[in-house]
Amino acid sequence: MNISVVIPLLNEQDSLKELYDWIAKVMQSNHFSYEVIFIDDGSTDASWNVISQLSNQNNQVKGIKFLKNFGKSQALHAGFEKAQGDVVITMDADLQDSPDEIPELYSMIVNEGFDLVSGWKKKRYDSIISKNLPSKLFNWAARKTSGVKLHDFNCGLKAYRLEVVKNIDVNGEMHRYIPVLSKNAGFSKISEKEVVHQARKYGETKFGMDRFINGFLDLITIWFLSRFGKRPMHLFGTLGVIMFIIGFGFALYLGIDKLFLNTSGRLITQRPQFYIALSTMIIGTQFFVAGFLGEIILRSKPDRKRYSIKEELNF
Ligand SMILES: Nc1nc2c(ncn2[C@@H]2O[C@H](COP(=O)(O)OP(=O)(O)O)[C@@H](O)[C@H]2O)c(=O)[nH]1
Ligand SMILES: [Mg+2]
């Protein structure tokens, strides 16, 4: 099979039929063999009915229905597990992403050898204040911390080599950082393609301002996990040692000063250096303990997947 289209959705009953017809038209005119996997993430409207109807009429249409809303990342994960096409395309269900981009994306993966191609909504049809500006800031921060040079990390329209989706673990709200996950998993031929973006036709957006706070917190997590996730002691130990040395230096100075140099001076507890020494030594020790705990947790958790095999011969 050439292409799997993975579509996570929440309450998009009005768009689904139109979207499928459009995808089918593009696939047929390019002679692709394909499947479309809809993941209904606990919709409360008629989305699932529409999906079941579509799947009765066309056996390329596959549906996964979640028991309740688990979030876009979980939906993508479920779709990725099932996908079989050589190239996996993800897109939003709200008709903001155009299926006409599929052939070009497919060719960038198959002919130009990219692992992942992300859509770039250069011209965006969303509100300026709540979407466009925060999104610029967000993408800038993501570029800086991850080293992946993309303009638009969170574009729903992306294409992947099948191997990539089988080897990344999208969870929590990490769907915003799939290019970073992919890079960390060893798939670093990442590119982008400018895509046409349309204003939302039906329904309304499900992601408000709160996504930026969550998004930035996730960014810090992913930065930490990718740099120190396998060696927490290197971060915490370094900080701890630095803090402890500073504190110990002050304590030593105070002691020598009081015992030998200036025995009739102020009480040690009346001097500001005493408090600096006290707090930095305590914080330093705590960093150290955090580092040790991190290492212990790392070793005790059953490592679900420590390495992934790319190829096997003569089996
Ligand atoms: N699986 C799943 N999909 C969601 C959820 N929230 C939104 N979506 C889908 O994600 C896509 C993008 O959402 P949208 O609300 O259009 O976000 P926007 O384009 O950033 O305004 C659409 O296909 C939605 O149906 C969710 O909680 N779970
Ligand atoms: Mg949208």
Extract low-pLDDT stretches.
Answer: none
Give the class from helix and strand content and strand pairing: alpha/beta
Number of domain units? 2
The helix-strand sequence is EHEHEHEHEHEHHEHHH
Give average pLDDT, whole number.
91
Name given to the CATH architecture of the largest domain: Alpha-Beta Complex
The general outline is: elongated
Largest sheet, strands/sense/barrel: 7 strands, mixed
Beta fraction: 5-15%
Rg from alpha-carbon coordinates: 26 Å
Q: Using DSSP, what is the number of strands? A: 7
Number of helical segments with 4 or more residues: 10
CATH topology of the largest domain: Spore Coat Polysaccharide Biosynthesis Protein SpsA, Chain A
Bound molecules: guanosine-5'-diphosphate, magnesium ion
CATH class assignment of the largest domain? Alpha Beta
Helix percent band? 40-55%
Distance between the termini: 24 Å
**Which strand order does the major sheet show?**
3-2-1-4-6-5-7
CATH superfamily of the largest domain: Spore Coat Polysaccharide Biosynthesis Protein SpsA, Chain A
